[in-house]
Amino acid sequence: MIKLTAWSASTCGVPSALRRSDGTSVYVVAGSELNTSREIVAAEQAIVAAAARRDVHTIGADTINLALLESTANGIELDSGQFPERSTARNSSFQRI
Predict the structure, then answer these.
(1) Which string of DSSP letters, residue by residue, matches 10-64?
(2) Cβ of 90: how many Cβ atoms within 10 Å?
(3) HSE, side-chain direction, 13 A CA sphere, residue 83
(4) What is the count of structural domains for the chain?
């Protein structure tokens, strides 16, 4: 486990009378300490590295707009999480990344 919280009262010799049943200090807001694992850090680094790549295949605005028209014609509606700019997609050109 990797601690992400910079300072912790739980590491400052707090007496047992001032500790919760899980061992954390009463001086620390419950649930405020952040932790992660090496696996999560590695996965996040892989995502960031993939996002920074510029040598991947791209598709043009016409292809995207055609797919959007096809999905609408087939009764498939995308929500804002899938395509937040849907309302303006057909009227704009996409920049290749």
Answers:
(1) GGS---GGGB-TTS-BTTS-TT---EE-HHHHHHHHHHHHHHH---S----HHHH
(2) 13
(3) 16
(4) 2
Question: For residue 51, which amino acid is it?
Answer: A
Domain identity same for 41 and 71: no
Residues 67, 34: one domain? no
Range of the domain at 11: 2-52
Nearest to 88 by CA among 58, 65, 70, 63: 65
Residues 6+ apart with CB under 8 A from 65: 89, 90
Tokens encoding 73: 């014609």
Name residue, tokens 């061992």: 23
| 0.70 surpassed by pTM | no
pLDDT in tens, 53-92: 888 888 888 998 898 889 889 998 887 777 756 444 444 4
The verdict on 6 and 38 lying in the same domain is yes
How many whole angstroms separate alpha carbon 12 and alpha carbon 70?
A: 61
